[in-house]
Structure formats: C-alpha cells, structure tokens
Design a protein that fits this description.
It is a single chain. The protein is an alpha+beta fold. It is 19% helix and 24% strand. It contains ten helices and 18 strands. The strands form six sheets. Strands 5, 6, 7, 10, 15, 16, 17 and 18 form an eight-stranded mixed beta sheet that branches. A two-stranded antiparallel ribbon has the order 1-2. Strand 3 and strand 4 form a beta hairpin. Helix 1 packs parallel to helix 7.
C-alpha cells in the first residue's frame, strides 16, 4: 500500500491540463506555485450548498483553426438522477463522479419521509448495461469485462441511489463502472469506504463525494518512475486504474446560533486497486486534496474552500466498519446479522 510520500511522488509524474488551464503544482512540501486560475468542479455557497460552475462545463473556445472539427479530448458530462460524472473516452470509464448525499437522499430522514407508494431502487432489478448515449467507438462493452478477472466496480454505489429504480439503474451503466479487483477490494475494503461516506450524513447536513480513478507511477528497480496498467477486452478497450480516490466535502452549521454559517470539512483518500486487508487503518490512505488534483488533472475545490475547511479526520472518525456485504447476499442466514448498505 502506498504511503503519502509515494502518492506525492507519483503525482509529480503525472501531467495535468484541464478546462484550458493548468492545475496547481504541488511540491513535496505541500506548497503551491502560482499558475493560471482553474475553475473548481464544485463551488460551495455561503450556506453550504454546492453547484457545478458554468465554466467547468462550458464548451471549447471557438478558434478558426478548428473550423473542421474539435479533436478533443471531450469529457462527456453525464447528469443522472443521483450523480453527475465526466466520462473518459480514452480509458472507457469515468474521469470522475460527483454525488450529493443527505439523510433525505438516502431515505433515512425522519423529517423528509418518502411519499406513500413511491418506488425505491431495488438492486436485484438492475442489470449492467452499455451506455448508448456515448459514441460507439468510445463505449465500454459488457464483453470487455467477461472473464477479465476484474469486477465491474461502481464509482457511484448502487446503495447511494435508492431514491428510485431509474436512479439505481443509472449506476449500472458501464459509464459509471471501472475495473476493480474483486475479493479484498471492491467487495470488501472499497465497500467499507463507500459505507463510511454514507455514514457521514449522520454527522453532516450535506456530504459531497467525488470518486476518481487514478493512474499513478511506480518506481522500477532501475530507479525510474513508470506508469503501467492493464487494458481489458478483446480487442483491448477498457483501462484498469492503478488507484482510486475518494474525496469528500462535508458541511454542517457551525453552531446552533449561526445555522447559516457552515463548517466545512474536506479530505481525500487514495487506495490501490489491489487486495487491502480488513485491518488496514483507513487513515493510512489519507492524501492531500491537492495531490489528488495534481494526479487527476482536476481542480476539485477553490483555494477559498480549502483554506477555510478543516480536515475531515479532525471533525469525525476516519474509521471503516468491516461488514461482509457480499457474504450476506450469498447466504440468506446472515442477512439478519449483516445488513446490506442502506
């Protein structure tokens, strides 16, 4: 498992150009060099609400050189019922996904009960589906994952989209999927992290979750850093990320006397796409948000938000709960003792 130092070094090796601007360079000591301003993916308002800024989703600048077409890269912006994502046509999986979790969105709010007779999402009624809204040459295909040795890993978990069957079905589109190691990661430690993100809603009014596939370099015996990754499918089509990041921004009223003044907490965690022991401390995967931004070529939060926020591990416990969700599904006798993600 990589240390924060390794992730920092890896981030140095990855170029980052996004939205026509260059992402801030993060040094080994955490200092940032001045550079062109890059709009953040999410902007947080004075009351803790968030939105996608228009600059982040605007089209390419008009240039006479491009009169016969713009070659890209094109990040397909996918706006779904329960999440928003940008699709990476080169790797055939999301570049990032973004969610806004609340007790109400998860169906756990006593103040906002579900309407009588409303349909909620049922995982057993959802199936993995190719995303036909994407151009055929850039789609991930069901056949790509067949006998690949990897799980079809949700970037936005199905358990986060129980508001309706349509919302849950959208999490099973392959544009929300990336190849993940199954036993020991997707079915276990990664599921614990997803559960931790949902549990944040019991302590915070609003929780924003970004999931980001990463390709980080490793140091070879000759002392040089290289990025290497598998590509699945026949012919090869879908890239297998080396790591995945969970980045969270959580807000709540700073005090009962100042309910309109939010307390903001942020944090980033980078996990390798490999077997992770259940006993691994979640805090061992803490990584600076700037390091994730540098590696992914993204600007997640503005400097103002970063400077005003506390680290999430200072305002809540960064501990996962080991719950074998997959075994409970397979063995009905365990369902009473190990509940599935809600």
């Amino acid at each position: 498992m990589p240390s924060a130092a390794v992730v920092h070094a890896a981030c140095f090796a990855v170029g980052a150009v996004v939205g026509g601007g260059v992402a801030a360079v993060v040094s080994a000591h955490g200092s940032r060099r001045p550079g062109p301003t890059v709009p953040p993916i999410v902007e947080v308002g004075p009351t803790g609400d968030a939105k996608l800024p228009s600059a982040a989703v605007s089209g390419a600048l008009v240039s006479p050189v491009l009169k016969y077409g713009h070659p890209g890269p094109v990040p397909d912006l996918l706006v779904r019922k329960a999440y928003t994502a940008a699709y990476d046509r080169r790797h055939r999986h999301p570049a990032w996904t973004a969610e806004h979790l609340t007790l109400a969105s998860l169906g756990k709010s006593a103040l906002v009960p579900s309407p009588d007779g409303s349909e909620t999402g049922d995982r057993s009624r959802s199936i993995f589906t190719e995303d036909e809204t994407l151009p055929v040459p850039f789609r991930a295909k069901l056949q790509d994952y067949f006998r690949s040795g990897y799980d079809r890993g949700h970037m936005v978990p199905a358990a986060d989209a129980k508001i309706s069957q349509e919302a849950m079905n959208e999490t099973f589109l392959l544009s929300n999927i990336a190849p993940q190691v199954g036993d020991g990661f997707n079915r276990h430690y990664w599921a614990y992290v997803e559960d931790w993100c949902r549990r944040l809603t019991t302590s915070f009014a609003d929780v924003y979750v970004f999931t980001i596939p990463l390709y980080l370099p490793h140091k070879d015996p000759d002392g040089k850093w290289r990025v290497s990754y598998e590509v699945i499918g026949s012919p090869p089509n879908v890239s297998v990320p080396t790591h995945f990041a969970k980045v969270v921004l959580a807000s709540r009223p700073s005090s009962p006397k100042t309910p309109d003044v939010p307390e903001i907490s942020t944090g980033a965690f980078v996990l390798p796409n490999t077997i992770i022991p259940d006993e691994a401390p979640f805090e061992s995967f803490v990584t600076p948000v700037e390091a994730v931004e540098r590696a992914a070529g993204l600007t997640l939060f503005s400097d103002a938000v970063k400077n005003a926020s506390k680290h999430i591990c200072q305002t809540t416990k960064c501990e996962v709960i080991v719950r074998r969700f997959d075994e409970a599904r397979k063995r009905p006798e365990l369902r009473r003792t190990v509940s599935a993600p809600k």
